[in-house]
Amino acid sequence: MKPFPKTEMAENGMVVAPHHSAADAGLNILKSGGNAIEAAIATAASLSVHYPHMTGIGGDAFWLIYDPEEGVSFIDASGYSGGEVKPEIYSDVSDIPFRGKLAANTVAGAVSAWSLAYEKSQANWQGSMSASQLMSEAVLAAENGTTVTASLAETLKDKANELQLDPFFADVYYPQGNTPRAGESLIQAALGNTLKTIGEKGFDDFYRGQVSEDIAFDFAHRQGLITHDDLKNHHAKWQPYLELETSHATLFNASAPTQGVASLMILGLFDRWVEKLPDIDSADYVHLLVEATKIAFSHRNRMDTSATPEELQAWLTPDYLDQLSEQIDLNKARPWGEQTSPGDTTWFGAIDSKGRVVSAIQSIYHEFGSGFMLPKTGVVWQNRGCSFSLDPTNVRALAPHKKPFHTLNPAIALFKDGRVMAYGTMGGDGQPQTQAAVFSRYAYYGEDIQTAINKPRWLLGRTWGNSSETLKLESRFPDSFSLILREKGHDFEWLSSLDSSVGHAGALIRHTSSTIEGAYDPRSDGKSSGF
Length: 531
What we know:
The chain is an alpha+beta fold. It has a domain at 239-343 and 407-530: Glutamine Phosphoribosylpyrophosphate, subunit 1, domain 1. The chain contains 18 helices and 21 strands. The chain has helices at residues 20-31, 36-50, 110-124, 131-144, 150-158, 160-163, 167-173, 189-201, 205-208, 210-221, 228-232, 260-271, 283-300, 309-313, 318-325, 430-443, 449-454, 480-488, and strands at 8-10, 14-17, 60-67, 71-77, 146-147, 185-186, 237-239, 242-245, 249-253, 344-351, 357-365, 372-374, 379-381, 411-415, 420-425, 458-460, 471-474, 492-495, 505-510, 516-520, 527-530. A seven-stranded antiparallel sheet has the order 1-20-19-15-14-9-8. A seven-stranded antiparallel sheet has the order 7-4-3-11-10-2-21. The protein has a three-stranded mixed sheet with strand order 16-17-18. A hairpin with a 4-residue loop joins β14 and β15 (420-425). It starts with 7 loop residues before the first strand and ends with a strand.
């Protein structure tokens, strides 16, 4: 095992991303005089090329932005289901499939997040970088080739039987019928041309320009579900965020349709134990956060995706959290039967020299999303809409112009001593759990932020390709945890020592001295890039 990374320190700016080239792309923007929003856009575009199994411009995004003068703001760039997406389309199946054209049933909103954030950068932050400059590294990597990482190669190998069913996908990601190996070069020429076009014509072109026409043409030609009108009618929006006051900081997260409320509830419940916290390296610490997760997920799973922030804030009131915390027994596990969701995602963050912060998350849901390729643009479309239910009585029942449930949720914390922290992770239902592990280790126990990410983690619920809903722990935890957790009533199993199913976390912290700390996940191909 290679040595664990150490916390990166910088004074002028930093970017953290789960791929090193994407982090460097954002850093280069900062070094060229760009701000945190501009750096984050460049990072997002670069991730779409270097980490196509985890994210892409055919997916959705949510951004939290912090400005010392303006406070926190939140962008919801998730897409609605198409206007023609109706339950009768799926009359021959019991569930919405994960792959293919029937899975590609919601508008992709990621690029609209770039557009709305870019407007803020230009209007409020005196942004100096052109959209073309922000796309340049991603365009070059797509046209000239990105080096295939081990995780990308493994995904293409493991999912070949599903993904090669789409001939246009196979043409790009299985060139000449071969599965790319780690270290080889992968060219995504059509995607590069699309990124170049939206750089030259503006991000809005993805929805109301030549790129949107090409997308709509391919959907129609391939008998897909998304139309030109669906694209034209999509806009990212500034929305109210959720917040939670804790002993150490005020925490901010995304509102519906995301599970941001669950992330806040877990830490809100944990905060009720601040006077009697278990040892950080004990099984009781894991048990406490797992029990908080069960309570939070039971609430989240009955949440309507159109729930208002006011409705969700009611779950975060001190009195309500006090009541819920009484349900936690340190000696006994609650019954667990909730269904959970896997998911591939990328979290990335940026801080500039003026202390402005972006915490963003962008995803196509499962590995390569639906696997449905649009050949004119090189865009692989997300399958977020497979989280809809075909049961008309379900709170998440499929309907036209409806937002699906999202696991995506970026986080920001404003500490009482003036520190600002951006943090997040990929990992579907693991996202709230990993956020809780990283934040609690750092804020409550004083762990170094990189150590907080390096240390072993857990997951309650499913991993990819595995329907098991058990509690899973990385094998670097002590062997004794197995007996202790089973005695408490947990259905338990081990993972590998550094397992991607517990997420690819990242964090950035700016101190009042202007020093910036950054940490990335050794489970990823990431980097903390600062100067």
